Structures are given as C-alpha cells and as structure tokens.
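Re: How this chain folds, sequence and tokenised backbone to follow
Notation: Tokens come from a learned vocabulary of local backbone shapes, not from coordinates.
Start of record: The labelled sequence and token lines come straight after this line.
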Amino acid sequence: MRAEAAGDPGPWRQQAVLGRGRWDADALRDVVREYALETLADPDTVLVLDETGFLKQGKASCGVHRQSTGSAGKITNCQIGVFAAYASRHGHAFIDRALYLPKTWTSDPARLAAAHVPEGTAFATKPGLALAMIERAMAASVPFSCGRDSERAANPCRHLRGHRHPAARHVGRAHPRRRLPGGAAHGLADG
C-alpha cells in the first residue's frame, strides 16, 4: 500500500530501505517531529500517549511475550509499542515511539544480544516509556497540553506537576477521553 501510494511498481524498493538500509531511527523521529511541529502547531495541541499490541507467532521477535493487548482483547503472544502522537485542529502525526520489553527480555542478556537490542537497555514500564517521550518532547521545546491517557492507566503526565513546561499547567484539566480523529486512545497499562 505504501509502495503503491509512492508510485512504485511493487514493495521491493521500500522493503530495501526499511530492511537492508542503514538509518538512524531516532534521527528520523526527530525529523518527523519537526515536520509535525511546522505543520500542526496550535495553542491547543495535545500530546496523546497510547500503546498498541502487534500480534506475533513464536518468540524470536524482539519483545514478544504473552501479555495483555487491546488489539486482541486477551492475553496473547505480542509485541507492545508505546506511541506519542501530536494532535491539533490541523491534524495529527506520530512523533515518538518505544518498544516495550517485558522483564523476561531485559533479564536475559543473551536474548537481548540475539535481537540486537542496544547494550544497557533496562526494563521500563509502559508509563515510564511514555514519560521518557514527554521528556524528549519537552527537551525539543514541543508545545503541547498534556491530558490523561485513559481512566485505567497511570497518568505519566502527573510527573509534570510543578514543572516549568507550559504543559504542566494543563495537567488534570485536559479532556480525559480526548480522541484522535478516526481513532480512540485506550491508554497505557502499568506493565
């Protein structure tokens, strides 16, 4: 679908870039974030934090573990990604991401090495990953309001109380069920 939209006759060129090309994912994240800021910035912009599960077979894919995912509505083999989206009246874009690694992964150095996980990677909860995204956004001077991610989740934005970032004044006042156009956020479990 992506290749078709780009006018390519098949997926091979894009697969080569994504699968065999050498690129810096964090540098690309920063480029996307800057583009989103140029295009979508608005005083009422919200940073939306959410997780999603990617169903997987087997155990070799990085982070795969039997865990709860809203994607399947049950406990199953999956990867969990935590995402930050920048949403305004002008549109929305993903500006950050992190792969959740369960303790079964972070406590197994051989497994981490086999999956090419960078050395020094430690266990972090999903709210902890979301907080790191908030901190990266703040370090990059991303203007945003910060609302609750969901009723069932620990709110990573609560850590902003008393902070000098403009988002801190909105903690606890933003819409608890704010939705991205075309989708609903179900929140971050504490895992």
